[in-house]
Known about the structure:
This protein is of the alpha+beta class and 184 residues long. The protein has 9 helices and 6 strands, in the order βαααβαααααββαββ.
Amino acid sequence: MRxxxxxxxxxxxxxxxxxxxxxxxxxxxxxxxxDRAILSSKISSSNxxxxxxxxxxxxxxxxxxxxADGSLCHKCxxxxxxxxxxxxxxxxxxxxxxxxxxxxxxFVWRTFFDSGRVEVEKPxxxxxxxxVHGADEYASSVCREIEGWLEKTTELSGxxxxxxxxxxxxxxxxKFCEYVVQxx
Length: 184
């Protein structure tokens, strides 16, 4: 499975903006050689990179700079949603409600991931189930990042007091990853 370089760029930007160049260098030093080589070179936002490298980068960031509990990956996801608002998906945020944005997240998924598909169920006015099926690879760090992205995306599209919680996960043996997104 692969992810777009734009995803790596956002993660690098989050680390540098939040913690500074020195802490980014610390995370870089703690990575495997192949992952270090990816982050040390010029990342092309449109190129594909290994999913596993992305997952290890998020995990290293959370372990070294956070509490090793996924909460920093969650914050990185929120940062990514802000980045999306000011770039690629600006029109979606301006025109859409939380349901509209979450329902169209399947297009966002295909932009950044080359495997898997998204299914969205809307059981109520202020709730959505966001499911990722068939992704070739998965990792807890990426799941926490997706929670943060869904939460902030919901807020940016008009939902107040948004929350996103993963209730099923392939890491734990489930057939798909499921996130319950709620807002006021």
